[in-house]
TrEMBL record:
The keyword Electron transport does not apply. DNA-binding protein that binds to both single- and double-stranded DNA. Binds preferentially to UV-damaged DNA. May be involved in DNA-metabolic processes. InterPro entries: WD40/YVTN_repeat-like_dom_sf, WD40_repeat_dom_sf, WD40_rpt, WD_repeat_DNA-damage-binding. It comes from Penicillium alfredii. Residues 36-75 are annotated as: Disordered. This is DNA damage-binding protein CMR1. GO terms for molecular function: DNA binding.
Length: 521
């Protein structure tokens, strides 16, 4: 071996040291690239820069939908060279797999569904049947602080109004089970409906992930056979999953009480047979690639065959279920440049409809004179902020909720809507709210938008509607804007934002962001 002189190392040693230096430089470069891309961060030790170690926070359990995503694995452990074409190609494939998994979860199911296909949780009812034969401070809510009570009732001078206030305030929270135990859907309740039967209260609720919950509130809490028994069974509930995305609207037509119609953000309207517990798609775009999220659904009281709906893109549609869906049988109109959050047909004059949209307008339309190219509204009124919902009642009144923290009532019955001819319009000065009620509508991101809902067939001459209250109540108002009741009770710990009246009985239900339901009867 060659001897080293005083000025340097041998050729072999110099080459070895050069290899070591090249390796160290490469490792340092890889570490810098990893840090800059966020893949690796050097942990801070206690005492560094005077900072204290962070407390350990337990990880939240992954949601069910995350299980469909591919598991990430280290490229180094799989033998891939950093920055190689193989790694880039693999990264692109993994990203595409994630996108495809997300798309697959959101695609609607077009096939007919049996109870077994939809069943998620709860108890399968006997006979496989779901039914038997027979503002205070703007934007700030103060939980449980009442704004209406006995003192307001005692001050009432109108005898009819006072009697109705007393009747509505005497409604009691269903006491068979604590509201905290009546979890009707796994996720946030987005829409609700009562079955029209007056013999027993049957409630349907749709949630943000496409689940449908069913509660028969005529059931009684079983009495334990053993007095010392600790058994305390939960109420009988049934949970199905007919849709893949948010159920935005639902209804049972009074002429067809064995069928429930549900509209969803998955672009479909489905018909569920409540006796057979089967679900059939009645309307959807021709291609599954088309995303036509449906925001609301309605049917005319005298026509159980025609579906009407609105979309998040501002469209309004109509389809007669007795025909095959095609371009010629499905009618569409672009009624708003932005999302239509809610709409209803006028029950007494179903050729009129009211739409509420994100562009801040309430509009009224006449189906008898609605151009497919340039539809013109009968009347329109602009609010300061977006309008969430427009609800028509049989008297020709429209109740709206808006992000300007108001409930507005427009009385078209008093303006002669029942005698209007085709082409009749109202000027901006004529179409203004007859009543404005201050009401906190600042629901935020996690609470479903507040929407007023009328009792369709009230058993008196006083019209009434209900709406959720951010203080953990459900408020009931008359058609003239007088508050009739403020419904609450022990065990209600969340906002019953989705409030619904039974069409003829004084039964009121409220659904919460935790999937639970409150019922007053």
């Amino acid at each position: 071996m060659a001897t080293e002189n005083t000025s340097g190392l041998s050729e072999f040693e110099q080459k070895r040291l050069a290899n070591i230096a090249e390796r160290d430089a490469l490792l340092k470069q890889l570490a810098l690239e990893s840090q800059s891309s966020g893949l690796f961060k050097t942990p801070k030790l206690p005492g560094n820069n005077g900072t204290k170690p962070k407390k350990h926070t337990p990880k939240r359990p992954k949601k069910e939908e995350e299980s469909a995503l591919p598991v990430r694995k280290s490229s180094r452990l799989r033998g891939f060279t950093a920055d190689s074409e193989v790694v880039k190609r693999k990264a692109e494939e993994d990203a595409e797999a994630v996108r495809e998994a997300e798309r697959a979860k959101r695609i609607r199911r077009s096939d007919s569904l049996s109870q077994g296909d939809m069943f998620v949780a709860g108890q399968k009812l006997s006979g496989d049947s779901l039914i038997g034969v027979d503002v205070i401070t703007k934007g700030v809510a103060k939980p449980y602080e009442r704004t209406f009570g006995d003192e307001d009732i005692q001050k009432t001078t109108d005898k009819d109004l006072k009697a109705l206030r007393e009747e509505m305030n005497n409604l009691k929270l269903w006491e068979a089970w604590d509201p905290q135990r009546i979890k009707i859907t796994p996720e946030r309740v987005y829409t609700m409906a009562f079955h029209p039967s007056e013999s027993k209260p049957v409630i349907f609720a749709g949630d943000k992930m496409g689940h449908l919950g069913v509660l028969d509130a005529s059931q009684e809490k079983p009495i334990p056979s053993d007095a010392d028994s600790d058994d305390d069974p939960d109420p009988v509930l049934t949970t199905l999953k007919p849709h893949t995305r948010t159920i935005s609207s639902m209804m049972v037509h009074p002429f067809k009480p064995t069928h429930l119609y549900t509209a969803s953000y998955d672009s479909s309207i489905r018909e569920m047979d409540l006796e057979k517990t089967t679900s059939v798609e009645k309307y959807a775009p021709k291609s599954k690639a088309l995303d036509e999220a449906l925001s609301s659904l309605d049917m005319a009281p005298d026509d159980p065959n025609t579906l009407y709906w609105t979309t998040l893109e501002g469209e309004f549609g109509r389809y007669d279920m007795r025909s095959s869906p095609s371009e010629s049988t499905v009618s569409r109109w672009q009624l708003s440049p932005k999302k239509i959050g809610g709409f209803t047909l006028c029950p007494s004059q179903p050729h009129y409809l009211a739409t509420a949209s994100l562009d801040r307008f309430l509009r009224v339309w006449d189906l008898r004179k609605l151009s497919p190219d340039e539809p013109v509204a009968v009347a329109e009124h602009e609010s300061r902020l977006s309008v969430s919902h427009a609800a028509f009642n049989a008297a020709g009144q429209i109740a709206t909720s808006s992000y300007d923290d108001t409930l507005k009532i427009y009385d078209l019955g008093a303006k002669g809507i029942s005698s209007w001819d085709q082409g009749h319009t109202l000027s901006d000065k004529e179409f203004v709210p007859d009543t404005v009620v201050r009401h906190n509508c600042q629901t935020g991101r996690w609470v479903t938008i507040l929407r007023p809902q009328w009792q369709l067939n009230p058993q008196s001459h006083i019209q009434r509607f209900c709406v959720g209250n951010m203080n953990r109540f459900v408020d009931v108002y008359s058609g003239s804007g007088d508050q009739l009741a403020q419904l609450g009770g022990d065990g209600i710990t969340a906002v019953p934002a989705v409030a619904m009246f039974h069409r003829s009985k004084n039964w009121v239900a409220g659904g919460t962001a935790s999937g639970k339901v409150c019922l007053w009867m």
